[in-house]
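Quick review question:
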């Protein structure tokens, strides 16, 4: 049996209150101050994960830092907190450890953490890339968007996930726009894409300007705050939000009924698992792709640093996707802002977009 650990963290004080309601009695700054000095917590034991004749079990361990703290506190302090969580999983018997959400981007994206452990580490980003591309293409198809004529904007393009997503999708779309804060890194990525696929990608450091003309937005930043707002989106836009915490403002859900927002990187585990329930805000049997990668490696008994650092190879993405298909892992049903998105709701969004376009054409 393969055994794994997976490190998680609360997005904010409100997220913590969902698991521990008594937290609501205290202010967010007070909660964060307490979390800063708290030891890691064992959140859940996942037992009897079975697929294709293999089995695994795992432990979810929470490092008690919020998304804001992971980004803003000194890197050495944050790394010590993450390593402490990893070592707790080690003591439980984990043979490989996955880094969830922002724990995978701190410092050198897991390399320093792996050096301090006895077992290998993976960020899970390779399978996140595979599922992000699959979800983006499916969502675009449902909205009647032809990839070959679409304007694709990748937010957080110079990050580990964003860069390989852009490279793998470059030749499939009509126009590719890369956006991030560092113009020099954007130019380097654009040069790599041209050398690989002869595609001339546009670069843009002004995120709001970049998304205004986008038909498809793939949001994969490592920001702790919301980046995409309702006033910046064109009607009919498809946004695949892979970032955790999310890049898309919740106001989009209430103010824009003419765009499709899906949560990227959600995976259905074929057999589910046993053990004490633990909710990510997802139904039982659904996990994030980074966690699914860790599960897959445990099922395969491949105890290796499969995805580590800020460079992901295209072949890595294809390899982990093949393992997922072997074990029956697949994209989960679309969700938007933690709610199931039915096919009927997607049809209604498309109908509203079509109606707006017709009115625009007929307007004098």
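Suggested answer, residue by residue:
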């Amino acid at each position: 049996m393969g055994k794994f650990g997976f490190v998680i963290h609360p997005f904010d004080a409100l997220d913590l209150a969902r698991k521990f309601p008594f937290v609501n009695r205290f202010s967010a700054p007070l909660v964060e101050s307490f979390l800063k000095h708290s030891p890691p917590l064992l959140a859940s034991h996942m037992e009897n994960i079975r697929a294709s004749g293999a089995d695994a079990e795992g432990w979810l361990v929470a490092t008690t830092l919020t998304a804001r703290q992971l980004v803003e506190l000194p890197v050495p302090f944050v790394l010590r907190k993450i390593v402490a969580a990893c070592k707790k999983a080690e003591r439980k018997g984990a043979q490989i450890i996955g880094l969830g959400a922002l724990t995978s981007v701190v410092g050198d994206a897991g390399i320093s953490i792996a050096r301090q452990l006895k077992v290998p580490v993976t960020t899970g980003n390779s399978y996140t890339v595979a599922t992000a591309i699959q979800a983006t293409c499916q969502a675009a198809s449902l909205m009647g968007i032809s990839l070959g004529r679409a304007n694709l904007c990748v937010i957080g393009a110079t990050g580990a996930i964003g860069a390989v997503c852009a490279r793998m999708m470059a030749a499939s779309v009509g126009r590719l726009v890369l956006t991030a804060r560092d113009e020099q890194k954007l130019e380097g990525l654009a040069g790599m894409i041209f050398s690989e696929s002869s595609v001339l990608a546009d670069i843009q450091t002004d995120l709001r300007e970049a998304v205004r003309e986008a038909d498809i937005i793939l949001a994969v930043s490592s920001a702790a705050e919301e980046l995409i707002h309702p006033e910046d989106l064109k009607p009919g836009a498809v946004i695949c939000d892979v970032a955790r915490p999310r890049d898309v403002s919740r106001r989009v859900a209430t103010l824009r009924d003419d765009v499709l927002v899906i949560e990227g990187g959600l995976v259905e585990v074929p057999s589910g698992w046993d053990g004490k329930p633990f909710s990510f805000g997802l139904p039982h049997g659904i996990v994030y792709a980074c966690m699914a990668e860790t599960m897959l490696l445990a099922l395969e008994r491949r105890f290796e640093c499969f995805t580590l650092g800020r460079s992901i190879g295209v072949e890595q993405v294809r390899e982990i996707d093949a393992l997922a298909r072997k074990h029956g892992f697949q994209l989960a049903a679309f969700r938007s802002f933690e709610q199931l998105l039915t096919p009927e709701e997607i049809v209604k969004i498309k109908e509203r977009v079509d109606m707006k376009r017709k009115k625009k054409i007929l307007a004098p």
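Why it works: The first strand starts at residue 2 and ends at 8. Residues 66 and 304 are 28 Å apart (CA to CA).
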